[in-house]
Design goal:
- It is a single chain.
- The chain is of the alpha/beta class.
- It contains six helices and nine strands; from the N terminus they run E-H-E-H-E-E-E-E-E-E-H-H-E-H-H.
- It has a single domain, classed as Aminopeptidase.
- Strand 6 and strand 7 form a beta hairpin.
- Bound molecules: pyroglutamic acid (PCA).
Length: 212
């Protein structure tokens, strides 16, 4: 049976006009287009508090995936970092200029949701493919954390028992080399990020098939 994996990426935000997460998602969707074992479908998520939930809900109902892997950019990190948890906190100004400070993702909701992706196995697989990777214990409190909380909350409220979680990725080299004002930050070539997330997805699929 083919496993359908929804891979989400975010639109650019802040001073950037590209977001590596979306580049990776679309590359993998092209590569795993109707594959025999794994099909990847990509969906673009807005960096906007109000719009995230409706966009995620639309992608989930449209694709009815077997698993959800969400991607986002964590500028300044040197490795691909699967996130352990999404917490019920929002902070920061979104792409519409809407600011949230210390408010919950879901009022009255649980403190957090653990990722249900096979974090350790995914990190091991990425490293085996030569890709710097590590588990992260905080996705921050901006839109990526929002996604890491909102999606598991949505799935739980619908009784949808599918693996879901968030993976942060570093800047692309162009986001550092071309930055004005200059940026001093680590970066990772797109091809290496694709290798890493591909390994993570293959690991997820093996785990789901009980081969790990
Ligand atoms: N990174 C931001 C939001 C969108 C993205 O790609 C974050 O880490 O919250």
């Amino acid at each position: 049976m083919t496993l359908k994996i929804l891979v989400t990426g975010f639109e650019p935000f802040g001073p950037d006009n590209i977001n590596p997460s979306w580049e990776i998602a679309t590359a993998l969707a092209r590569e795993y287009d109707a594959g025999p074992d794994i099909t990847v479908v990509a969906a673009l998520m807005p960096v906007r508090w109000e719009a995230f939930g409706p966009a995620a809900e639309a992608a989930i109902s449209r694709h009815n995936p077997d698993a959800i892997v969400m991607l986002g950019q964590a500028g300044g990190r040197a490795a691909i970092t699967p996130e352990r948890i999404g917490i019920n906190v929002c902070n920061g100004k979104d792409n519409d200029g809407v600011e949230r400070q210390e408010v919950p993702v879901v009022p009255g909701g649980p403190a957090g949701y653990f990722s249900t992706l096979p974090l350790r196995a995914m990190v091991d697989a990425m490293r085996k493919h030569g890709v710097p990777a590590d588990i992260s214990n905080s996705a921050g409190t901006y839109l990526c954390n929002y996604a890491a909380y909102w999606v598991p909350h949505y799935l739980a409220s619908r009784g949808m028992d599918i693996p879901a979680g968030f993976i942060h990725v570093p800047f692309l080299p162009a986001q550092v080399a071309g930055a004005d004002p200059p940026r001093s930050a680590p970066s990772m070539p797109l091809s290496l990020m694709i290798t890493g997330v591909r390994a993570a997805i293959e690991t997820l699929a093996s785990t789901m098939r009980g081969q790990c």
